[in-house]
Design a protein that fits this description.
The chain has 15 helices and 21 strands. By secondary structure, the chain is of the alpha+beta class. It has a six-stranded mixed sheet with strand order 13-12-16-17-19-18, covered by helices on one side. The chain has a four-stranded mixed sheet with strand order 1-2-5-4. A four-stranded antiparallel sheet has the order 3-6-7-8. β1, α2 and β2 form a beta-alpha-beta unit. Pfam families: HATPase_c_4, SLFN_AlbA_2.
């Protein structure tokens, strides 16, 4: 275990509190790892309730008098299974919470501090049970319904991007970690003339803020948007987008893999350039020879942007991923979508990460309105490619765009999906779907072939007749939900 010196300002702040708060506990001695774990749960949940970034358990301070008395507690002592205390606590806490120990001497007396990050998406549980401070006592959260309701309200209303990724940072360290020049380039602003002006600019964007120890905190939003290297942020280290290329239609033979390390806003255009170099293209002569991307660049752009912005940041150890096969491209992001995949095209998106989404819209990465799925479907239809597929796989959302495929090579699922999304696209544009539009979509000349395609979608319940009484030649169709 690595312990850090206690920041002077932190200990002074905690000791000067008028009383123990929901997010602070003072102990002369406490060595039982189970009780320590219960306090981590209580203090992490209490920090969330109090709007604090962290909760603190302090050894070596007398609670009633707030005088330093010293402690023999050793964070490096081994616990069950010969694990270090911090590792053992991590295995018993869910969701995982970032904890840190500080040890030092004050006036010749040993003092230790455990710092636990505030709960984010759900209450922190130790061995399956959530705890909370009630007055000066540690209690099971389930025994206090009003506090539990308030905690859930706080967690559900808080922005995940406001969580702290690094704290206790000096002015220079913040500017080492965040790309201020890149930020200014993206928003069209002049580069600040001083360190103080740079930090004020970042603070105004809620990318950084002052912490309880007198240093700076970098928020998750700041790291995700403009980090020079996401690997410098423990919880964000694997949130950089990965691009994996395969030699065939399977995952058996990987050709190359590239992992992004920069913040999304800084790296986005570079990521698209890299993808365009890796994705197939072909030549067309109309009337001059030109190179055309097999997968429309606008469709790829929209889906990659959606994967970055709409991912669930609470899913640890996973980030957006683009997989390039010889017959398709799959774009995966952690998290189950907040909108039914059937309604991606017509329903305004609900983003878990609205601050990040708003910033990405501001710099022209994301759609100002809508999810961009309408553009994806339109571009793929215009390029005469199969319809995209949107599905949930485990805890992930997967968007797939397919390479060229003749109608005769499509199975029923592919054909019905194409009819359904074509109908959705025209419905949101207030345009009817008819036998004629289906022939245009698939470049057919035979009306009976278009009718068979429409019948498949009707039989599968994906579309319905707009007017049941209309004659066969005058039928119009709408999505099943319209």
């Amino acid at each position: 275990m690595t312990t850090d010196p206690i920041p002077d300002r932190l200990l002074a702040l905690l000791v000067e509190l008028p009383r123990e708060a929901e997010w602070v506990e003072f102990k002369r001695e406490l060595s039982d790892p189970v009780e320590i774990g219960e306090y981590v749960s209580a203090l992490s949940n209490g920090a969330a309730l109090s709007g604090r970034s962290n909760g603190y358990l302090v050894w070596g301070v007398d609670d009633p008098t707030r005088t330093l008395v010293g402690t023999e507690f050793d964070p490096d002592a081994r616990v069950k299974g010969n694990q270090s205390l911090d590792n053992w606590l991590t295995t018993q806490l869910a969701p995982q919470v970032l904890i840190r120990f500080y040890v030092g001497e004050v006036d010749g007396m040993r003092v230790a501090v455990l710092e636990a990050a505030a709960a984010e998406s759900s209450p922190i549980r130790f061995k399956g049970t959530a705890y909370v401070r009630v007055g000066s006592n540690k209690k099971r959260l389930a025994e206090h319904a009003a506090i539990e309701r308030r905690l859930w309200q706080v967690l559900q209303s808080s922005a995940p991007e406001d969580a702290v990724e690094l704290d206790g940072l000096s002015d220079d360290r913040v500017l080492d970690l965040l790309d201020v020049a890149g930020y200014c380039r993206l928003v069209g602003a002049e580069h600040p003339s001083s360190t103080d002006a740079s930090l004020a600019l970042l603070e105004s964007e809620k990318m950084v803020r002052r912490d309880e120890r007198g240093g700076w905190e970098i928020t998750r939003f700041g790291a995700l948007a403009i980090a020079k290297d996401l690997r410098q942020f423990d919880r964000m280290a694997r949130k950089g987008p990965r691009v994996i290329e395969y030699s065939d239609e399977t995952r058996m033979h990987g050709v190359r893999e590239q992992a992004g390390v920069k913040g999304y806003a800084i790296a986005f255009e570079g990521l698209l350039t890299y993808l365009r170099e890796r994705l197939p293209s072909h030549e067309e002569i109309d009337p001059i020879r030109r190179t055309v991307d097999t997968y429309p660049s606008l469709a790829v752009r929209e889906l990659v942007a959606n994967a970055l912005v709409h991912q669930d940041l609470a899913v640890a150890g996973a980030g957006p991923m683009v997989e390039i096969f010889t017959d398709r491209v799959e774009i995966t992001n952690p998290g189950v979508p907040l909108v039914d995949t059937d309604r991606f095209l017509d329903t305004p998106p609900r983003s878990r990460n609205e601050r990040l989404a708003a910033f990405m819209r501001r710099i022209g990465v994301c759609e100002e309105r809508g999810s961009g799925v309408d553009k994806v479907v339109f571009e793929l239809e215009f390029a005469q490619l199969p319809a995209p597929e949107f599905r949930v796989h485990g805890d992930n959302t997967v968007s797939t765009i397919f390479g060229p495929r003749a109608l005769a090579s499509m199975d029923r699922e592919d054909r019905v999906r194409a009819i359904y999304l074509h109908t959705c696209l025209r419905y949101v544009s207030r345009l009817p779907v008819t036998n004629s539009t289906i022939r245009d979509r698939f470049q057919l000349t035979d009306p009976s072939r278009a009718s068979r395609l429409l019948k498949e979608a009707l039989d599968d319940g994906r579309i319905r007749l707009f007017d049941e009484g209309a004659g066969f030649k005058h039928r119009r169709y709408v999505p099943y939900w319209a």
